[in-house]
Amino acid sequence: MKIKRERKYLRGKRMTKKHLKRLNIPKTWDVKKKGIKYIKRPLPGPHSFKYGVALSVFLRDVLKIANTNKEAKYIMNNNEVLIDGIRRRDDKFVVGFMDTISIPSTKEYFRVVFNKKGKLDYIKIDEKESKLKICKIKGKRMYKGLQINLSDGRNILTDKKDCKVGDGVLIEFPKQNIKDVIKLDRGSLVFLIGGKHTGKIANVVEIKNSVMKCSTKEGDFETLKKYAFTIGKEKPLIKVEE
């Protein structure tokens, strides 16, 4: 008896999976694992598979402004959904941490954040806040000046030469102007996006190589430096919690 094997390669190239079972969704998705067998797999985009959700899934299962995938598609096809100020119609477009979702027709604005359970959630913001976003600097290079590579896939040319990898930048839409650079240093305010302290806002006490000591009202703890997402010095520059 021949056993059918999953076809992973086509003409020597690895095939990208187009389906996703609910049982295999990342732990960061705030979606029920029981129910319909399959769920929408997000396309590769500005966020990784672990930290991003398909737009139609976020509208239906998290924001709950649509009851079905068909309703979510209808809303997007009517140009009613803006992600970071840009209209999106693709139901598989990936939405992730710090993205702003705007629905001008109903005057509703949201920001994607992590809750205390480590799940991708949302908070309500106003129209002015929907034009602001903090991104983390993932890399930088010289190209017609200094180019910084950000956590949401953006590459921006800037004259701010004091910024370093790991720092945060406050961006204003739609022109993508850098309003401020937020240093990752002692005393900085950070939003933790990984580990068992995901979703917490803490002050940096000390940084030693890749380990960082943080302080909150509940007490002090250590976590990895790569989990830190700077959001301000004494208080957040944008709204990140209710």
Describe the structure.
This protein is mainly β. It has helices at 55-62, 69-77, and strands spanning 9-10, 13-14, 52-54, 82-83, 86-87, 94-96, 100-103, 108-114, 120-124, 132-142, 146-150, 155-158, 168-172, 177-182, 189-192, 201-208, 211-216, 219-224, 228-232. The protein has three domains: 11-127, Roll (Structural Genomics Hypothetical 15.5 Kd Protein In mrcA-pckA Intergenic Region, Chain A), CATH 3.10.290; 131-182, Beta Barrel (OB fold (Dihydrolipoamide Acetyltransferase, E2P)); 189-232, SH3 type barrels (Roll). 7% of the residues lie in helices and 37% in strands. The strands form five sheets. A five-stranded antiparallel sheet has the order 5-4-7-8-9, with no helix packed on it. It has a five-stranded antiparallel sheet with strand order 12-11-10-13-14, with no helix packed on it. The longest helix has 9 residues, at 69-77. The model is unreliable at 1-6 (pLDDT under 50).
Secondary-structure-based class equals mainly beta
Count of structural domains: 3
In sequence order, what are the helices and strands, one letter per element? EEEHHEEEEEEEEEEEEEEEE
Distance between the termini: 59 Å
Based on the coordinates given, report the CATH architecture of the largest domain: Roll
The CATH class name of the largest domain reads: Alpha Beta
Give the rounded overall mean pLDDT. 89
Low-confidence region ranges: 1-6
CATH topology of the largest domain: Structural Genomics Hypothetical 15.5 Kd Protein In mrcA-pckA Intergenic Region, Chain A
- CATH level-4 homologous superfamily of the largest domain: RNA-binding S4 domain
Per the principal axes of the C-alpha atoms, what is the gross shape?
globular
Strand tally is 19
Q: What percentage of residues falls in helices of 4 or more residues?
A: under 10%
For the largest beta-sheet, the strand count, sense and barrel status come to: 5 strands, antiparallel
Task: Indicate the radius of gyration in whole angstroms.
Answer: 19 Å
